[in-house]
Structure formats: C-alpha cells, structure tokens
Amino acid sequence: MPGPKPLTQEQQRKLLEQQEKQIKEAMDRIKHRIVVFSGKGGVGKTTVAVNLAYALANKGKRVGLLDADITGPNVPQMVGITEMAQAEGGRIVPHEKEGIKIVSLASIVPPGAPIIWRGPLCSKAIEQFLGEAEWGELDVLIGDLPPGTGDEVLTVTQRMAPQLAVVVTTPQEVALIDARRAVNMAKKMEIKQIGIVENMSGLICPHCGNRIDLFGTGGGKRDAARLDVRFLGEVPIDPQVRTGADMGQPTVLANPDAEVAQAFFTIASRIEEILSRPHNENRDTGR
Q1: What's the CA gap between 251 and 238, in Å, rounded?
Q2: For residue 277, which phi and psi values (nearest 5 degrees)?
Q3: With contact defined as beta carbons under 8 Å apart, do 190 and 243 qualify?
Q4: SS (H, E, C) 44-112
Q5: pLDDT at residue number 209
Q6: 74-109, pLDDT tens digit by residue?
Q7: Which of 11, 152, 247, 264 could tie 7 with a disulfide, CB 3.0–4.6 Å?
Q8: What was the pLDDT predicted at 278?
Q9: Share of the chain above pLDDT 90, in %
Q10: Residue 237 near residue 200, CB atoms below 8 Å
Q11: How far apart are CA 159 and CA 146, in angstroms?
C-alpha cells in the first residue's frame, strides 16, 4: 500500500503556525521561565535544576520542570518517577511529584532505549513538550537543557523566551572555559538575566565534616565578575546528593537541613530576588 502523501508547503506552514501559537499560549501562562545549562557535561547541571525546582516550590511557587536533555533525560530518575507518561485529548499530561509538574522523554520511551536522533528531531520533541503539555498556570518553569550550545539549546531559548539563564560550572579552569561560552551564548540570545552557579565547590567530608577543595574554589565567582553577570552561589560536594539522586530523592527534600541543601535554598532566594528586579540590574558579585 502506498504511504501517506507528503504535506504541501502550505500545510507545513499552517502546522508550524499552529505549533508556534500553542507554545506562545502555553508560555504566556507561565510568569517566569528559567533555563539551566552548561558549556560541558559532568558538572551537575541536572542536579542543580532539580534541586532548584524543589527549593522554589518550597517557597510556595507553582513550578514546572522540563527535561530538555533529550538524549540524556535523567530527571525522572532523580525525582523517583517510574511510570510512563499519559496523554489526554492529544495533549501530554505532566507527571506531578511533590507538587512539581515534570515532562521528560524518559517517561515516554522504554527504559534503557537509546535515543539516536538528529538535532531537528530533538528540537521537534522539545517544541511538543512546550506547546502540547498541560503546564497550566505556573510561577516558574525550569528547562534543564543538554550540555553545550547546540540545536536543542537554541530551540529551548527561542521558544521559552526565558527571563533567566543559570549557567552551571565547576571551579576548575577546564569547566570554566566552556561556562564562558555558555554565558556568551546566553548574551547573544538576549536573555535578560544571567547567573553562574559554582557546583562541586569543595567536598564536605562525611567523617569529619571538614571541607576539601578538590577542584579549587572561587572560579565561578571570579568569572561572574569578569563577564558582568550575577554570581548565584556555591554548592559543595556531598555524597548524600548522589545517593539521593540514585534513590529518586532530591536533597532539598530528603535532607533540607544539610549544608548542600541550604546552598540550594540560598540560590533559590537569589533567583526570586533577581526575577523581581528590573532586568538592567544584572551584575552581582555575590557579596
């Protein structure tokens, strides 16, 4: 049997217009939109995104979390979601976990299935998550982006129109080089507010409680000053964060009094303050 006829240019144009309208309508119902990304992988970007989402929810915010790292979607694992996503009326129904709405490709594809997609297909999936998910009225939508500055990052920043970009780095120079690229990309995308989080900023010894600067310290703060963007804060290494993520328990929920959880709460407070200020007050040295 012959396959379906390809769409005409006019049909393609109408579909694109409809999708853009859906995305705009969805984003217009969300007060603040934040993207969390990094210049390179392995710096704890998703850990930061997840814990900031729950820290903001703890402050009474209605929060959504979009797992836009299409080929490496880890958010469901970190928050304890094991069920497959559902749809109603042709629209995606986000999972709700501890009051947060979450959409991720990991809840749609079979566990362990490789996602071998080219950039345009990944971007298409992100557009569907933004426009066809029932986000509803939210105070904050956080997009956890893939590392780097590729197609998916461009798609999310263009479609979400975020007011704040959070760039995650670690203190060592190798990570900071890529973080600078991420900051400069955010500037080119004309994101009004940009901030840096220095993750893995010292190890809290589980035996004695002392701090060990495995990767150095202060690099994120220095780069924030050099690049004229905000420094949002430092997050130390704590083995409990890894354990909690493996068990689907974000540290701000599992151990809110821990130093690392308090670091996330402090950063969340700074984010609240930033989003309430005029966008031209951009620099913050962290003092």
Answers
A1: 10
A2: -95, 160
A3: no
A4: CHHHHHHHHHHHHHHCCCCEEEEECCCCCCCHHHHHCCCCCCEEECCEEECEEECCEEEEEHHHCCCCC
A5: 73
A6: 999 999 999 999 999 889 999 999 999 999 998 988
A7: 11
A8: 62
A9: 62
A10: yes
A11: 15
Rounding to the nearest 10 degrees, give the CA dihedral for residues 20, 142, 153, 159. 10
Residue 94 structure tokens: 């986000």
Specify the residue for token string 């590392």: 147
CA angle, 137 then 85 then 160, to 5°? 40
pTM: 0.89
Q: Which residue has the higher pLDDT, 150 or 287?
A: 150
Provide the token pair at 201. Answer: 């900023």
d(CA 180, CA 64): 27
CB atoms within 10 A of CB 283: 12
Give SS3 for 235: strand
